[in-house]
Design a protein that fits this description.
Largest sheet: 4 strands, mixed
CATH class of the largest domain: Alpha Beta
Number of strands: 4
Structural class: alpha+beta
CATH architecture of the largest domain: 3-Layer(aba) Sandwich
Strand content: 5-15%
CATH topology of the largest domain: Glutaredoxin
Length: 190
């Protein structure tokens, strides 16, 4: 027999021996732990806090309906003397925009007497992009970044958790102001 043939057989014999040892080890383990595998229920281990009875089955919730008008048109905007308007220019697919809308939806039930909300998608809607450019002119801005939030005389570009308090304070401040400013009202009445 050739030397390479002998080597192949030794390797094969080694692999088969390893598989045999693993199989015997698994058999011994299963033999000594058979009570776990013989019952028809999920095993509960002594040190485990998991218990099958603790599982609560709930129905999948339907996605909640948006409570804010994030697809507004300029024609839908109203100017209520008892509230301020909050405007958002956003982009379809922008995760920061979605997080901002979620935050505004979260605070809206408590602060709905303070503001009305109008969102304008600018990445896919040319009319909204033109409106954004008019707003930029009023505030002497050149940025086209989203999300772009307007609360009275304040503009906020971008969103993260650190801006939540600032947004809420801006809403309260604009609402309480005796000199309320509304950029879209200025554009519409022009």
């Amino acid at each position: 027999m050739e030397r390479s043939e002998i080597m192949k057989r030794k390797v094969l014999l080694g692999v088969l021996s390893g598989i045999l040892v693993l199989g015997i080890g698994m058999g011994v383990y299963l033999f000594f732990h058979r009570e776990i595998f013989e019952s028809n229920s999920t095993p509960v281990y002594e040190n485990s806090s998991f218990n099958v009875e603790d599982i609560e089955i709930t129905e999948k919730e339907e996605p909640k309906e948006n409570i804010l008008n994030k697809n507004a048109t300029l024609e839908e905007v109203t100017f209520n003397k008892d509230k301020i308007n909050v405007y958002l220019f956003w982009g379809n697919g922008c995760p920061h925009c979605e997080h901002l809308v979620s935050y505004l939806e979260e605070i809206y039930p408590e602060y709905q007497e303070y503001f009305d909300f109008y969102g304008f998608e600018t990445w896919e809607n040319e009319e909204n992009e033109k409106l954004r450019n008019q707003v930029n002119e009023k505030f002497n801005l050149t940025s086209t970044s989203v999300p772009f939030l307007i609360i009275g005389k304040e503009t906020i570009i971008g969103f993260n958790a650190s801006k939540k308090e600032s947004i809420l304070n801006s809403i309260k401040s604009a609402y309480e102001s005796t000199d309320r400013y509304d950029v879209l009202k200025e554009i519409v009445e022009k």
